[in-house]
Write a structure and sequence with these properties.
The structure holds two protein chains of two kinds.
Chain A (H helix, E strand, L loop, with lengths): L8 H26 L7 H20 L7 H26 L2
Helix pairs in contact in A: 1-2
Chain B lengths: L15 H36 L1 H8 L4 H26 L3 H31 L14 H36 L7 H27 L3
Classes of the chains: A mainly alpha, B mainly alpha.
Amino acid sequence: MAGHGAPDRRAIILRPLLVWAALFGLGAVSLGYALWPGAPLKPLLSLAIVVVQASLVLGAYMNLGKAGTLVRMTALIGVVWLSFLFLMAFADLATR
Amino acid sequence: MSSRPAPTLVEPFEAADRQHEAMVFGLWLFLATEILFFGGFFFLYAVARLQDPTGFAAGGHKANLLLGTINTLLLMSSSATLTIAERAIQAEWRRAARIGIVATLALGTAFLAVKGFEYREDLSEHLFPTMPDFPFKAVGAIRFWSFYWLITMIHAVHLTIGLAFVARLLWLDRIGTLGPRWMVAEVTTLYWHLVDIVWLLLWPLLYLVGR
């Protein structure tokens, strides 16, 4: 955020590559589990992995953790309203 | 740590910090609306899958896992290259920034090309719900393929817009104003990452279902 210095050259290359490797590894786990015949709870595991991957992108690439309160609130509000949408729409669907 | 280049200020801002906060906030506000926009489609997916899980899985099994996975790798890599570019711009490391931007453009374009090949293959197998030879009768499978075409096209439009913004960074570099406009690079990168996150979610929803 504002006022912070720019990272040094080594960190500029290494940090994104480490995150890339983690995202790749998580994707490989997701794929391996999906292709494992008869493995239980495949959709749940793949979604859990997506949550971890998205958190990595949000935290390490998009710097959401270092962002100011206003920005973090805005990101959170998007997710909060989305959860309301899902909650109310599923409640409607389940009670028909 | 070196400091960031002095930014180009635009009206009505008189201070770099204010401009930076406003730009990042404005972009995140837009991303929040995008989360809601895509959220509606994911709700559609959830309902369709819950109402006919067997038919949905049968439809999903026909999706091209190899091409979908290649595209996931391409987009994942493009996020890394654009992050490197964005941070290099802030560190005034022009060569790395240029390489990162060009690599992102190449990876993004490759994604669209692979998607094009995938669409051609899908159509050759009649996997479009309104085609007379569409191979499924189950409602779930029809809904899966309707969702597939709708969401992948919407995603491709988002990616194309992202490519235009990344290409603009290359143009700013060419005219020598990219360094002072590092905030533009930052918000461009934020948008690109959201497009990447959406695909990270789409990959298991479209290509791992029914495996």
